[in-house]
Amino acid sequence: MRNLPTKIIIRHLPPKLTEEHFKEMCSPIPPYDYFRFCSTDPSLGGKNFCRAYINFCDPESVFAFRERFSDYVFVDSEGNEANAIVEYAVFQGTPNTPPLSKVDRRQGTIDEDSTYQKFLANLNTSPSEPTTGEESSAGKQVAKTPWEATLEALEKREAAASQQVETALTRFLNMRLERSKRNAGDDFKGMSRRGMRPSRNSRKARQRQAAATSSIPLGNSDATPQCADSSQKSADTNSISVGEHD
């Protein structure tokens, strides 16, 4: 029974009920060591109620009080009625609760703490005045806008990229790229020249064809064989005549 809660709360009391009227309606109240009556808050409007806290000296008084006044109809001076609700209080502590036996030994010793003393010393000392260079740099930093800071960061990044050291591998790759571009340009020029001018072999073939055409006579094509036959006959006649003289 000692570990059972002894503090209760009586809710849903009429709004115009007073502490004296409540005690008169609840008398005789079992022995208690703590009592608190809370009146209504006018700012909450008409739907507000009073409440009371009681801490009894023994748990048995809690059960006896609850049997009497749970769902009991209380009436205030203006005739307002309300059914009371009796239940255990969530917080069982009271101002009459004895203090804890353990006491913090560091209580009241903050003035003697070395860290706190250093804090006070730093707080009392005046801040050091900045030099002229620091003041100018601080003024520049304050005058900069976010857009200017972004531009400055981009410029620094571009400058760092342009100052990169060229290695042997990058040099070789750049040379090969330039050589390939140069060869591609030469091939394009050669192709354009060949398309504009005729080749040397084609010119020679046309010259030979023109010479052969000019050597053929313009007369009948059968004249040449006849001339050949007549020359052959004259040659045979000459040979016969030479034989007869012999």
TrEMBL record:
Compositional bias ranges of the Polar residues kind: 210-246
Domain of life: Eukaryota
The entry's keywords: Nonsense-mediated mRNA decay, Nucleus
Region feature (Disordered): 123-144, 183-246
Localization annotation: Nucleus
Keyword Nucleus in record: yes
Biased composition, class Basic residues, residue ranges: 191-207
GO-annotated biological processes: nuclear-transcribed mRNA catabolic process, nonsense-mediated decay; positive regulation of translation
Protein name: Smg4_UPF3 domain-containing protein
Source organism of this protein record: Hydatigena taeniaeformis
